[in-house]
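Mods, move this if it's the wrong board.
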Amino acid sequence: MTRDPDPPPDSDPLAERVVASEIVHRGKYMVFHVDTIERADGSRGRRDLVAHPGAVAILAVDDLGRLLMVRQWRVAAGRALLEIPAGTLDVHDGVTEDPDVAARRELEEETGHRAGAWRRLASFWTAPGFASELMHLYLATGLAAVADESRLAPDEDEELELRRLSLDEARDLVETGAIADAKSILGILWLDRLRSTGGATAS
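Not the wrong board. Structure tokens:
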């Protein structure tokens, strides 16, 4: 049995209307603000929110079926995490980067590879309780290394270690908790499901 689609926001009885917004900080990519909302019954409340331009994450699979992953230090977690390549959409003059373009840029910057075939798998909210980040998940295959002299380099503040794992190895690390990054867990399990149904190819 399929679930009925959600009603449009303007007719949803759970909808909350923003009646006031106070910006408390502007960061490099994000804007932090406190919104006053009004519910359908007229009652009001406050929401601490982070406005985010969105992001991409890539399941990059080489010709041997191995996932390209990156290990990097995450201050919020207090540890280095093993993750699939990912990054924030750039914003220039108020225009947000196309996710299809961003995925190609991030793959090259973080892994030094380009892909011959791309497939968008899903889009999902990473933390809808407080952030507007919508992440787009891609499958990239037909990988080829980029010569160092022509490669797009990682951001100046990024230190990355490139790792290659079989899908079985990656799934085992998810199951043991060694891979603890949400987008990577989702992506690896999604790819494992695609493999089991014969759909783990890009186009």
